[in-house]
Design a protein that fits this description.
Number of strands: 0
Distance between the termini: 46 Å
CATH architecture: Up-down Bundle
CATH topology: Growth Hormone, Chain: A
Order of helices and strands: HHHHHHHHHHHHHHHHHH
Shape: globular
Length: 392
């Protein structure tokens, strides 16, 4: 087993962390009769990992990438499956929080592993392939919703999330720690000493790393807010437009699955292009191109296409390009590990991603509150009409 397995693990994380949750939240709100804008945002944001997943970084710097990665996979698999038992929005939020703590650590650990385990000539594209796994997970979740979810309901979709337990066992049994980590951490044959939790955190804010840490956290915050701006509201927006076009709720749900798949295909292509652009333009310039494109298509999707008289097809077409520029996350998997030494690499990665998620969660909650209070998600459409069109 090599680092390609981490892409498969990331596939499962993508399926469980976002798309499955987005579809299932609609289901439980229908079951419990608790659908409100603030509850949708709250439950959707809770698995946004709120920063609690930061703890995995220092643990991985001290105890190893593969063992801690296996623990994160076990955590998100068990609690994703347990979410099938939820009887209320609050119970779903709790299970998603616990699962999210595991999911949130996976990106940092897999990114650090790929950076340390792959040869330099393969590491750059490895970052791209790693990130595509997450969005293949979106595609998988859309397929599950189209088949399993449409037939057996949202609880069956969460039960599918138990499958990564097998991957956790295989990682423990077959994946070796990167040699670079073995040379600097607490395993036999090490050179150096294991980092303590507080020491790792203090190190990434030392004079050597402070500016890099702050800038990386800020950039990741922008990227995560942009991603969630699309992923959080995309299924509901498509269902709204589909029902406006005369589709039944079941047909609208399947259309939302198709839209998610198209978004994911665009993102996968964006992830694969990111390392190539980073080599030609440089890390900073490539990231600027992706951020500009993402901002443009967020506006075109939700600020223009959504309000067209017959905007369903146009909205879904815009999602492809929104997904492509959402592939900017690959640049962080490539660029961020280059900036830190092995002894603090996972800590730095985990801090930057967790900080971004924490702020992103707050921003999305604020957006939900603004939607509710202002009565609009953009320029024209009142929330009352959106809910009516959606059937909620």
């Amino acid at each position: 087993m090599d680092s390609r397995w981490h892409g498969f693990v990331y596939l499962r994380a993508g399926a469980e962390s976002s798309a499955i949750g987005a579809f299932a939240q609609v289901g439980i709100c229908e079951d419990s009769g608790e659908y409100r804008t603030r509850w949708f945002d709250f439950v959707r944001i809770i698995p946004g990992w709120l920063g609690l997943s930061f703890m995995w970084g220092p643990i991985a710097d001290r105890f190893g990438r593969t063992r801690v990665l296996a623990a994160t996979i076990l955590a998100y698999a068990v609690f994703t499956g347990a979410a099938a038992l939820a009887q209320s929005v609050w119970q779903l939020a709790l299970f998603r929080l616990l699962a999210g703590i595991g999911i949130g650590g996976e990106w940092a650990l897999a990114g650090a592993y790929v950076a340390e385990a792959r040869p330099e000539d393969r590491r750059k594209m490895g970052a791209g392939f790693l990130q595509t796994g997450y969005y293949f997970g979106f595609f998988l979740a859309a397929a599950l919703n189209y088949t399993v979810g449409a037939r057996f309901g949202w609880r069956a979709m969460f039960l599918c999330g138990l499958s990564p337990v097998i991957i956790s066992v295989l990682i423990l049994a077959r994946v070796k720690e990167p040699e670079r980590w073995r040379e600097t951490a607490g395993l036999p044959g090490r050179v150096g000493k294991p980092q303590r939790w507080v020491a790792s955190l203090a190190e990434i804010f030392s004079a050597q790393y402070r500016r890099k840490t702050i800038v990386n956290a800020a950039l990741l915050t922008v990227a995560i807010i942009g991603l969630w701006a699309g992923a959080v509201y995309e299924p509901t927006a498509i269902i709204t437009l589909a029902k406006k076009a005369g589709m039944s709720l079941a047909e609208a749900s399947k259309t939302a699955s198709i839209g998610t798949a198209i978004l994911s295909i665009g993102t996968i292509l964006g992830c694969l292009m990111a390392p190539i652009l980073a080599e030609r333009l440089g890390r900073k310039s490539a990231l600027a191109v992706y951020f500009l494109g993402m901002s443009m298509f967020i506006w075109l999707s939700f600020g223009w296409a959504f309000y067209l008289e017959n905007g369903l097809t146009t909205f879904i077409a815009c999602l492809f390009f929104l997904g492509f520029f959402g592939g900017n996350f690959t640049l962080f998997s490539l660029w961020l590990p280059e900036q830190y030494e092995t002894c603090v690499r996972a800590t730095a990665f985990a801090f930057a991603t967790s900080f971004g998620r924490f702020i992103g969660a707050g921003v999305n909650f604020m957006i939900g509150a603004m939607v509710r209070n202002a009565g609009t998600i953009g320029r024209r459409s009142p929330v009352r009409r959106l809910r009516s069109d959606s059937g909620y």
